[in-house]
Amino acid sequence: MTTSAASQGIPATLLVIAKAPIAGFAKTRLTPDFSPREAAQIAAAALLDTLRAVRHSGVRHRMVAWTGDLTRAELSDELSTALGEFDLIPQRGTTFGQRLANAHADASRLGLPVLQIGMDTPQAGPALLAVSATLLLECGDTVLGPASDGGWWALGLTDPRPARTLAEVPMSTDRTGELTREALSRCGCRIRRLPILTDVDTAADALAVAEEHRGHFSRTVEQLRHHAPA
């Protein structure tokens, strides 16, 4: 693919962990404020903005670890076109932590540092991703982006081996970020901190991020919000 063949840009791999935005499968915590289909539409918009930010970040290699049936996804045509510019790999593992660890291991086979993000922070634009990848290269070790709910939105490693510890960290808790930092520190990682961002998990998160971010995500949230029943 052209992304793998690219010879210019920041010498790193930007890895997106993504799931098909299908009603009842993605962003279920946005209900009941939004219907299951509306929640999936918001997830699709967040993913499209994330993929666009990665494409324009200047990072050399772009990869998506994917799960779910793309043909059943909201905005499937737009997503298929956007994903065509990425190296696509399947997620592997039973738990979310295992899938994160395995995706990082798969991405590291390109031989470059890996910056891993999710599809829940559409406000992480190209400039922030470029700065984060550059900081990873400059520090030569580890970067971690905390999330305001206690989790994390980005993890960058120059040595892929500590990523194995993600399989043992409880995910989706208010201590996930803290426990991830502790686990990485036990592996000898020297961690540089990235800015704190809000993960879009709840309706309140979606409204807050839509206020600070201009893009497909904010337009979708505003449209659905105005059409929601009183």
UniProtKB/TrEMBL annotation:
InterPro entries: Nucleotide-diphossugar_trans (IPR029044), Trfase_1_rSAM/seldom-assoc (IPR018641). Pfam families: DUF2064 (PF09837). This is DUF2064 domain-containing protein. It comes from Nocardia jiangxiensis.
